[in-house]
Each structure stands twice: as C-alpha cells, then as structure tokens.
Design goal:
The complex is a heterodimer.
Chain A (H helix, E strand, L loop, with lengths): L2 E5 L2 E3 L5 E8 L8 E6 L5 E7 L5 E3 L7 E6 L4 E6 L8 E8 L6 E4 L3 E5 L2
Parallel strand pairs in A: 2-11
Antiparallel strand pairs in A: 1-3, 3-8, 4-5, 4-9, 5-6, 7-8, 9-10, 9-11
Chain B lengths: L3 E4 L2 E4 L5 E7 L7 E6 L6 E5 L3 E2 L7 E6 L2 E6 L9 E6 L11 E5 L1
Parallel strand pairs in B: 2-10
Antiparallel strand pairs in B: 1-3, 3-8, 4-5, 4-9, 5-6, 7-8, 9-10
Classes of the chains: A mainly beta, B mainly beta.
Chain lengths: ~120, ~110
C-alpha cells in the first residue's frame, strides 16, 4: 500500500528556514515523479515543485531560488528545503506521488502545516 | 504559464441533479487535464486523469470530456457525498497549474 507521511511543519519567523520531509512506503521514491503542492488557509491548491524519476527538478516561480526539492533514496524520503520564508508561504504542504510514472499526482500525504509569522 | 479558469466558482445543487463544471485553459492543453475532489479538512482525491479516464474506485457518475482549451467534469446524479470543492489541473506543461476551484454546495 502506498503511504506518504509528511513532517517538519511548524511556526517559523519570516526569513527563516524549514525542511519538510515526506516518508514513503509501499513504493520507491526514486522510481516515481514526486510533487509538493500547497494550500494556503481557505485557498486553492498551488503546485510548488516536482522531482522526476531521472532527477530533474522544477519549481513554481513563487518559490524558485528559495525552495529546493530533493530525495534520499536510502531513506525512501522526499524533502523540501524552504529558505527565506515569507508570510505568503503559510500553507498546508502536501507531498504526492504520480499515478504511474509521469502521470498526475494520485497518492497524497495528509499534509503538514507551515505558518510563517513573527 | 498556462492559466486555468474554472466556471462556475461555486454552485448550489440538489441531490440527483446533473452538475457540469468547466475548465478553460489559456492555451490548448490537448487532453492533459486532471480533476480532483477535496472535502473540507481532507486531502485532494484524484477523480479523472487525461481528460476522461476514471481513476480506480471513483463512481461512474463522474465523467470528463473535452480537449483543447475547454474541458468539463460532469456528475450525472449528484449524491450527498459529492458536496465538495473540485479542482482541475493541466499536466500539458510545467508548471502544472490548478484552476481556482469550484465549490459544490447543497441547495
């Protein structure tokens, strides 16, 4: 069974850094497209970043240069390193796995809340 | 970036109604369109991918159609458990943008 468990969220001051983790089970992270999607309180879904099975990475313009997606194959875990955090980064962050390689995100974690506030 | 615009932004409907939600892309996306359902406090759930392919376990009252710039999600007979917010997402190009959502409420 595919399972994704995010962790690492919390309250952080503007300008601070945080690293989110997404522990996967039931499949191999490095064999799939892994995505981060966020949802600000009361708002819609916003795509953040993806790492392809081949290792290529892409980012939304809103986070480019501040966020870094990565994976640890030995731990079967996906990460999102978030630097220079802003109030507008406040959101629930979901990690997701593709339906099949290169397919849409179909398996989602429960999300972790990041609150950027002084 | 491709902009995705859903209409309507919200609707009120009764159990048993036929409901149609439209997603318009700012440029052609062929059939690279996915639909998600999200209930309050819950994780998004993939309903339909590639415009019309039903995800495993999703009831057949959900269907998707269209190609190019105008695609639709139809619920043939609305059920109580279908009251939720629906999002489209294009997967034609990166970034794979979402629509703003359509909230389906009980009339």
């Amino acid at each position: 069974e595919v399972q994704l468990v995010e962790s690492g969220g919390g309250l952080i001051q503007p300008g601070g850094s945080l690293r989110l983790s997404c522990a996967a089970s039931g499949f191999t992270v490095s064999n799939n497209y892994m995505t981060w999607v966020r949802q600000a309180p009361g708002k819609g879904l916003e795509w953040v970043s993806v790492i392809y099975s081949g290792g290529s990475t892409y980012y939304a313009d809103s986070v480019k240069g501040r966020f870094t997606i990565s994976r640890d194959n030995s731990k079967n875990t996906l990460y999102l390193q978030m630097n220079s955090l802003r109030a507008e980064d406040t959101a629930v962050y979901y990690c997701a796995r593709d339906l099949a390689v290169a397919g849409p995100p179909a398996y989602w974690g429960q999300g972790t809340l990041v609150t950027v506030s002084s | 970036d491709i902009q995705m615009t859903q209409s309507p932004s919200s609707l009120s409907a009764s159990v048993g109604d036929r409901v149609t939600i439209t997603c318009r892309a700012s440029q052609s996306i062929s059939r690279y369109l996915n639909w998600y359902q999200q209930k309050p406090g819950k994780v998004p759930k993939l309903l339909i991918y590639a415009a019309s392919s039903l995800q495993s376990g999703v009831p057949s009252r959900f269907s998707g159609s269209g190609s190019g710039t105008d695609l639709t999600l139809t619920i043939s007979s609305l059920q109580p458990e279908d009251f939720a917010t629906y999002y489209c997402q294009q997967s034609y190009s990166t970034p794979p943008t979402f629509g703003q959502g359509t909230k389906v409420e009980i009339k």
